[in-house]
Amino acid sequence: MPDEGGEQLYESSRLLSLKIDERPPLIDGVITTGDKVMLFADPKAGKSIIAQQLASCIAGNHDFLGFTASPEANRVLYVAGEGDIEELQERGQAMGKLFTVPQDRLWYWPMPLAAMNVDKGFAQLMEFAAIVKPHLTIFDPIYALIIGSMVKDEPSGDFVRNMNKYQYLTGSAVLLLHHSHRPVKDEGGRFMEQGAESYFGSFVWKAWPRSFWMLQAEDNEHHYVKLSCAVQRSRKNRLGVTKMVMVEPDPLYFEPRDQNVGPTQAIIMAQLRLHPNQTTSDLVQTTSRGSTMVAEVLTGLASRGMVKGEGYPQKFIVQE
């Protein structure tokens, strides 16, 4: 640990000694300094994307799904246990077009070589944290960052004990990303809605967090999802249930859902906000949608007064 480690320990101890209601928010009503959050979802539902969006909003002082970010110069450490550097860079660049982040505020640690529930992995984590001094640390996903079975209490307990120790030493909030278990059917063969009980593994995973978030896909293509706070032990959390639509591929993010705006409409509107005066041909390239679809969507948006086209060929702008 560097010389300033003692100062960092003092500061983290002071922050963690504060009552929950007194801890500075990172996103007001969503996550606070020193918070313990677990986000779980089915595979491919978009949990890494929403986690990267949260990281970018905190590090760049942007609103997150309508909730206000702290204006402070907060830093985020993102520990990525799967995927690759190129994928992280592509996502970060696409998201960064909407959520810009100052230099040295958002750090990625791809593919750690040691698990986080063993001494070697914890020591490496602390070395990285001493450099970053994060206000939020994201572990994505925990199954790729643990050695041993997630169903068994011992390796799971070692992981969360290291998380508790890490938070005490750094003062960082922690967000763990996790998978849900396979759907369970009732006696009639119908899938059961299990809510917060649909996480995979040991009871330890549910016992640790202060807030338990669920991300659920609501269509087969995973364009429509909802984010909900299934369990909260902090009265400050106001996340509730937020229905969202995924905007992709560029920019890449989730936005609160307008029932009258679908995925293709959302990406066209996002593109026109970023780069006004695009033609239909421009939008075909920037949205990766077919020309017929783009033309039909623009016609529909124009008829509702949401976009306006002028000139020949028509160049479109958003009408807020």
Order of helices and strands: HEEEHEHEHEHEHEEEEHHHEE
Global structural class: alpha/beta
Tell me the radius of gyration.
21 Å
Please provide the count of β strands: 13
* Number of continuous helical runs: 9
On the 0 to 100 scale, the average pLDDT is 86
Record the strand order, biggest sheet. Answer: 5-4-6-7-3-8-9-10-11
Total domains: 2
Helix content: 25-40%
Distance between the termini: 51 Å
Shape, principal axes of CA atoms: elongated
Low-confidence stretches: 1-7, 181-186
User: CATH homologous superfamily name of the largest domain?
Assistant: P-loop containing nucleotide triphosphate hydrolases
Architecture overview:
With 320 residues, this protein is α/β, with parallel strands linked by helices. The protein folds into two domains: 5-256, P-loop containing nucleotide triphosphate hydrolases (Rossmann fold, 3-Layer(aba) Sandwich), CATH 3.40.50; 263-318, Winged helix-like DNA-binding domain superfamily/Winged helix DNA-binding domain (Arc Repressor Mutant, subunit A, Orthogonal Bundle). Helix content is 34%, strand content 21%. It has nine helices and 13 strands. It has helices spanning 5-17, 47-60, 85-96, 119-132, 153-170, 204-207, 263-274, 280-287, 291-303; strands at 25-27, 31-32, 36-41, 76-80, 106-110, 136-140, 173-179, 211-217, 224-232, 241-247, 253-256, 307-310, 315-318. Strands 5-4-6-7-3-8-9-10-11 form a nine-stranded mixed sheet, with helices on both faces. It has a two-stranded antiparallel sheet with strand order 1-2. α2 (47-60) crosses α3 (85-96) and α8 packs across α9 (291-303). The longest helix is centred in the middle third of the chain and has 18 residues, at 153-170. It is elongated. The termini are far apart.
